[in-house]
Amino acid sequence: MGSPSTPAVPTTRQTPDALAARFATRAAAHDRSGEIATENLDECRAAGLLGLTIARADGGQGGGLRQVTDVVGTLATGDPTTALIMAMHFLQHMLIAQSDHWPEAAQRQVTETALHDGALINALRVEPELGTPSRGGLPATRITSDAGRVVLNGRKIYSTGSTALRWGTVWVATDEAQPRVGQVLVDLHAPGVRIERSWRQMGMRATGSHTFVFENVELPETALVDLRLPEQWQSNDGALVTGHALAIAALYDGVARAARDWLISFLHARVPTALGRPLATLPRFHTLLGQIDALLMTNRSIMDAALDQAENGTYPGTEANLAKYVVTENAIKAVELGVAAIGNPALSEDNPLERHFRNVLCARIHSPQGDVALAAAGRAALTEPPQRS
């Protein structure tokens, strides 16, 4: 790739903690409107975060998965919808840098536009009929050859960050007799690309995960970045599985930590007339916070161990998926405990715990979903030779 360069986007080098504190002041408004917090993304750009996982030789910071989970988990304490958009951008650049398939020209294009123009990227994979590709099947989104042109047609749902993205790596099938499947790089500002505003969910409302529609979008040859026969994808990329699983786990753990901190402030501030002192003085709430902290302490231990193994290249994808399942279920349980303990204030839109509760439940719909993670771990256990005592 190219020589080192200085990003043209002005940087202020704000810490993720400082960014999260500001994001938290805007999160409720964006949750109500359902609009992406573009000012948060602008601040991420100004802080130089778009280059977090771009190689130092190419002008980025050369961060790895540990840096991704640290930043994503911290940003999620302020606004998990912004954190998710950034997580997907980080992971895509990690995967692009590690790929042996991507043409150098395409790799350079997404890298330089990220550093100089603040361009965001995400993978666009899910379809109405196909669902998530992690469960198998050929995508209906196709590329065809027409008079020497490569043309893209189809649609992708749940496209996180849609209106804020410049690039999409779109999961497609070819029109060949033996179809190949994989990624094409699409400039989402190109003619023939449009967005249907279809994201109307209970939680994570401001991710802008709308539907992209591609109608006769002409692609350059360099856009065909990674197409393989279906069976060549069956093993899947271990870095893809691990990175996605642990980034999602870190995000929803961040939501639970934000809920915990708000709960503590509420228990100190709430002084019922009949009690005459803060709820924080009651033993039952001491026990409650102990339960919550035990769950979050377990999460920290799981994440630390997972990241150590991932950095050593010894972490199976089945275990990464299982870690995502356990961490996110712990996060959900931690928030549920707070909701159950304080009653009506927990479900009032006047308080952020209600939003944290809706957001954290979305962990269950992120791949890998619980049944997939558990079944894969069970199969692995049952195909390994039993350990003799």
Automatic annotation (TrEMBL):
One of its GO terms (molecular function) is flavin adenine dinucleotide binding. Its EC number is 1.3.99.-. Residues 129-217 form the Acyl-CoA oxidase/dehydrogenase middle domain. Pfam families: Acyl-CoA_dh_2, Acyl-CoA_dh_M, Acyl-CoA_dh_N. Residues 19-91 form the Acyl-CoA dehydrogenase/oxidase N-terminal domain. Keywords: Flavoprotein, Oxidoreductase. It is an enzyme of class 1 (oxidoreductase). Residues 247-367 form the Acyl-CoA dehydrogenase C-terminal domain. This is Acyl-CoA dehydrogenase YdbM. The lineage of its organism: Bacteria, Pseudomonadati, Pseudomonadota, Alphaproteobacteria, Acetobacterales. The gene is ydbM1.
